[in-house]
Amino acid sequence: MRPEPGPTGSAAPLLIACALGIEQLALRSGGRDGASGPFTVVRTGMGPAHAGRAVSRSLGREPWRDAVVIASGFCAGLAPGMHPGDLIVADETRDPEGTTPCTGTELLVKALSRTLPGRTVHTGPLTGSDHVVRGQERAELRATGAIAVDMESAATLRTALTAGPRPVAAVRVVVDAPEHELVRIGTVRGGISAFRVLRAVLPAFFEWHRSLLLPRR
Known about the structure:
Elements: E1 14-18, H1 21-28, E2 39-43, H2 48-59, E3 68-77, E4 87-95, E5 98-101, H3 105-115, E6 121-128, H4 135-143, E7 148-150, H5 153-162, E8 168-176, H6 192-199, H7 202-211
Parallel strand pairs: 1-2, 1-3, 3-8, 4-6, 6-7
Antiparallel strand pairs: 3-7, 4-5, 4-8
Helix pairs in contact: 1-6, 2-5, 3-7
């Protein structure tokens, strides 16, 4: 597919990073209708260290050096009342290394609401962890103002910006929540609705991407 012209004649490609094979399967199942140029779905492996290394490696190769980056996949919701299949759009990601603001959050929320009408979209800080969060630790993270937690988004976005200026975003689908806690976050049981939602998000990602095309450096 031919890239849609950007401000200087070319569109920055889109790189979507996720940790798990099942997340990659869901995202790749979304097709490519509406893509404004090259895109790829990179499986990083679980945890911030794996995410950082995989994203750095991907952005070090053509044609992905200037790519717009979205961290996606599943997450644990922190707020009471959240359900599997709810969407999380981060306005910033946090971890012990610092805070990374996200780009075009409002545009992304609107795009997701059009693509998945009837799905609840939560916006707020997405915090990072190097392990699966349960019980009291979940409540402690909620007390910091975070609305969800995952292990890769913060490292993904920080690494992307270290490699060069670009739009970055994090969109996660709640697979477990305070009233719907799974035995482990990677399991499919109880997460079928989350898988279906993740499979449907690509058109919204493409819409957001089209609105934020970067000039080639």
